[in-house]
Design a protein that fits this description.
- With 124 residues, this protein is mainly alpha-helical.
- It has one domain.
- Helix content is 65%, strand content 0%.
- The protein is globular and about 45 Å long.
- It comes from Lacihabitans lacunae.
Amino acid sequence: MKNLTTAVFLLLITSVFYFSWLPSPDLSQAAFLPDWLSVWTNQHGIWRTSIPFLLLGIIAPLLPNIFAGILPFLRFSLVLVFAAEFVQFFLPQRHFDIYDIIVALIGAFVGYIIGRFFQYRFQF
């Protein structure tokens, strides 16, 4: 279970960088995404940033050797989203957006609380 959790966590981190570093914010360019998902992400530009961080937050409590609490996880999330946003300075159709950072941290926080609730409720 731990290996699967770690693999999903790493896949989500990779997806943050991949989608943040596409030359265009239009996710319909990612051919492997279903049409409904690329349409939703294009319509909800700022909120789409929170989704992978919400999922990372839900998974993070299952990795206690990496994240001993919410503060280390939020620090990790801040570094991750800042790195993803920083590279957008150098992409002509993208831009650094402080609101993306705020929304990502909100998603990470809410996800971590949900993950801790499930961990407590179902004892895993």
